Amino acid sequence: MAISDFPTALQPIIQQGFLEREFEQGLRAAVAYRAIADREDFPNGIGETITKTRAGLKPTVTTPLNSASNTGLDNGMNPGNNTFPVEQFTLSLNLYAVSGDLNTVTTRVGIVGQFLQNALTNGDQAMRSLDELARNALFGSYFNGNTRVTTTLAAAGPSIAVDDIRGFTQVPGVAALGTVANASPGAGVNPSPTWVPVGASNPLTVTVGSNTYEVVGYTVDANNTSSLKFLGGVSGTLTLSGNVTVADGTAGNTVQAANASTVLRPNARGNSSLLQAGDVFTMSDIQDAVAFLGANGVPRIEGAYNCYLDSYSSRQLFSDPDFRQLFQGATSSNDVFKYGRVSDMLGVRFIPTTQAPVQAHPSIAGLKIRRPIICGQGALIEGDFEGMADPDHADQGGRGPVEVHMVDNVAMTTRAPMDRLGQIVAQSWYWIGGFCVPSDVTTSPTTIGTASNSSYKRAVIVEHVG
Length: 466
Hints:
Phage protein; globular; 6-stranded antiparallel sheet; 13% helix
């Protein structure tokens, strides 16, 4: 009944504008990227970084043993020359934390139980924060070696300005057996890669425009103007061993390293700035990504690769003629069109997320660039400090001033009132750890015939407009 339906004489004494004594639940993010990570524990006292080792494959043997040399205890073989390669990666440990205070007196006159609401929003903030860290690490490596010229050369010269120098600053070298970074069983030469800075003796082959050059140096811009800065992009200048022609050094031209990560774009666009209206996400892109991952021997996750995408990318799939033909004649009970969602298809598991990186097109107003990513097993590593809830600095049993509850490896803490009036409760969360993306340099056409030269092989980014 509206207030106007009451007699005029009664309306002034009826309280209006009651505050509802609860908060309506806010919008929630759909987090996903952290789930792809293989989790590793940091042992107590390890310090701020930890080094892990991933074993590579030995090359195939197709030459028969010479029977004439099949003598002695070694049967004519040298076991020291057949050691398996290893690849090491370093994971950095950092502390992430947020805290807020709650006055237990003032909350009693508030419109909602703020303690529970604070706990809920703290948990949501923690999950979104870790998911963004995972996303940035994943995309940071799988953009490696893919960029574009940002300033047209006035004349042929050895330096070009680029949007992102990541993937152009180091090359995988070869270290001898017994070095600290590459110790390995056996004897002889160990073909294990160790990343070294680019230089005259360690050049990186790149394609600029239509021709091939060698990067021998780089400079980071004092003012980072990279369009991918929100994903860790770093603008700068690449120095080549010879002069780059003006035709190749024209703004917008693609610059790609020989070992670049694979980034797929509709209509074979060379870089994100070249995307046009109509370059949408299709089943063909998914099939190309699956073919790449399969050719590199990337293992699936419980039978399928994971594709993380936002709702606009998913929407474009539903308009793709190949996709619609796949479900042509499907019954009305089919969940794909009944609920507008895709689960498993073409060897891919589709996982919706609201954390997908989106940016405005660098040159076409009104267009946005979206980036689904298809991942296989081992694409991302999460390191968690295993001492986060140890009783030497936190009390989980309520015996001290701080209670710690571990939720998905994140510490949710509550500190009892310690102020003079005994009123202020501190509600916080913290996480000690980090994310890293191991490379697969040791997997090459020598060990897997269909493998690519990409240093990072376990995920594929698809760039499209939408």
